Amino acid sequence: MNAPLLAVNDIGVRFGGFVALQGVTTEFRPGRVTSIIGPNGAGKSTFFNVLSGVLTPSSGSIRFKGDDLKGTKQHEFVHRGIARSYQITNIFPDLSVHENVRVAAQASRSRYNIWTNRNKFTELDAKADAALEAVGLVAKRDETAKFLAHGQQRALEIAIALISNPEVLLLDEPTAGMGPEETKEMVALLEKLAAERTILLVEHKMKMILGLSDRILVLHHGRLIADGSPRDIQTDPEVRRVYLGQNDGYA
Amino acid sequence: MTSPALTVSPSASARKPARFKSLVTKYRVPLSILALCLLPWLLPSKALAVNVLIYGTVAVGYNLLFGYTGLLSFGHAAFVGTGAYITGIAIGQFGVPWYLAVLMGVIGGALLAFVMGALSTRTRGIYFSMVTLALAQLVYYVALQTPSWTGGENGLRGFTVNKINLFGFEINFLDPVNKYYVLMMFAALALWLVSRILNSPFGAAIEAIRENERRARTCGYNVERTKLLSFTLSGTICALGGTMSALHLAFVALDSLHYLSSGMIVMMTLLGGASSFFGPFIGALVFLVMEDVFSLWTSHWQIIVGSIFVLFVLFLPKGIWGTFLTKVMR
């Protein structure tokens, strides 16, 4: 494949005396699903926060399409092409489903226009509806977002993240709190999305990860301890040792 | 997000907006102006009606920041007072024509709002409120300590506007009805501006920030800059209200800068309903009418108004107009 889309070099994150990430070096090539796994507190969310600009790493560098992202503010990440969802559902609860996505679409079009009527931006409405179509929420278009079922809220958040047409999509536990039926729908959605963009996934559901991922990274105590295909990871002795006794369903 | 104790979430709650509500929303500016045209004939005095205009404008401007951006400022009296003082000083000490004095007051208030906003929007929640309060008190003490400009504790006098020349017509500004309708044009302008802002893409951006600041940032909004613009616009509208009050009273009280005045703006807004466009105006109306009526009975009118306010916050958090729109008209 071609050059890496996103590359991190020797990333370290410290909170006071606590080391959340240490010496993480890796790169992500376009058009794949990479899952990041590890026990609780391994640094998965911290890693995601670094990749999406929420956290500035204490050391190391991130390059996206060859550009160093040092000093790039969090809100600029999405304009560059890196979008994300959160572990805890993160939507605009009191806005309608359509407006949730429309306002996200608007961020790349008009942020400070205080004069034009927003209804004149019809292309944003169309874009929002297309995104709702993609995640199967068209029927709920005019509902207030907080009244959606949990799984639908998660799908809405993905629609919000997708609207900028990101090259890299970071999904932090998209199936958190979902039942088997909702999970199945989400997996189908992710498979569809994976055809068109680079997806990074933090998940706990092993069966899902093994089925969906092209590549798996394993974090433990803030260090990258394994990196390979699902098959490699399943047989990796270090990973087995870390997960032993945790009964995550595959050891 | 702001701290829960301070956030009065003004939410659009109706799942499917009723037809009446959407009509009211669509024609909110013409309807509001129609209501304002009738107002002086429905109230006990013209002076009260002018006060409603002034504080209604201030509250609607304030609500841009509070209700729609979700930022609780305790310092908006600074912009009202600054607008009033600059207008008064410009007319009284420099003989500037009234309309230029109004413009100067608005620009001065806008600049102050920009500076105060730049300092305060770096903080969040209770800290934001406290910084706005502290900065506004700073403005109060500056006015207190510069009596040669502001009249200090005695307030600013000596800039009575008797006649106004408007589109070639000379209008006697001392006549209360004339005064009302001249000032109403400013109030109408403010309502139209705020409505436009709320309908704009920027209006959607501030609502997104109110709803979920983190998500808005992740969507690509520069939250700090958006808040600063909202703060500045809000302060500008409040400054316009201040200049109106200077023209009306031909006097600027030092108290107009006091934090109690800021608190009153917050109360009016909450009373009328921070979730709606016209709510704050209704809040100003009801507050001032209550003050007018109850202060005839007792000098302790604030106890009654305060109790009613508390009851509203506890049981009708959407305020008078917000409750009317969501409950009665559905």
Q: How many structural domains are formed by the residues of chain A? A: 2
The rough form of chain A would be described as globular
Q: State the share of residues found in helices of chain B, binned by percent.
A: over 70%
Structural class of chain B: mainly alpha
Q: Helix tally of chain A?
A: 9
Give the largest interface pair and sizes: A-B, 43 and 33 residues
The total count of strands of chain A amounts to: 10
CATH domain fold name of the largest domain in chain A: Rossmann fold
Report the oligomer. Answer: heterodimer
Distance between the termini of chain A: 32 Å
Q: Architecture of the largest domain in chain A, according to CATH? A: 3-Layer(aba) Sandwich
**What integer value in Å does the Rg of chain B equal?**
19 Å
Mean pLDDT of chain A: 91
Biggest β-sheet description of chain B? 2 strands, antiparallel
Give average pLDDT of chain B, whole number: 92
Strand order of the largest sheet of chain B: 1-2
The helix/strand order of chain B is HHHHHHHEEHHHHHHHH
Query: Beta fraction of the residues of chain A?
Result: 15-25%
Q: Would you state the CATH class of the largest domain in chain A?
A: Alpha Beta
Helix content of chain A: 25-40%
Subcellular location (chain B): Cell membrane
Main location (chain B): membrane
Membrane topology (chain B): Multi-pass membrane protein
GO cellular component, one term (chain B): plasma membrane
Strand and helix map with partners:
The complex is a heterodimer of chains A (about 250) and B (about 325).
Chain A: E1 6-15, E2 18-28, E3 33-37, H1 44-51, E4 59-64, E5 67-68, H2 74-80, E6 82-85, H3 97-106, H4 122-135, H5 150-162, E7 168-172, H6 180-194, E8 198-202, H7 206-212, E9 215-220, E10 223-228, H8 230-235, H9 237-243
Parallel strand pairs in A: 3-8, 3-9, 6-7, 7-8
Antiparallel strand pairs in A: 1-2, 1-4, 4-5, 9-10
Chain B: H1 19-26, H2 28-42, H3 46-66, H4 77-94, H5 98-120, H6 125-145, H7 147-150, E1 163-166, E2 169-172, H8 176-199, H9 201-211, H10 213-219, H11 223-249, H12 259-272, H13 279-297, H14 301-315, H15 319-328
Antiparallel strand pairs in B: 1-2
Helix pairs in contact in B: 2-3, 2-8, 3-8, 3-11, 3-12, 3-13, 4-5, 4-6, 4-11, 5-6, 5-11, 8-9, 8-11, 9-10, 9-11, 12-13, 12-15, 13-14, 13-15
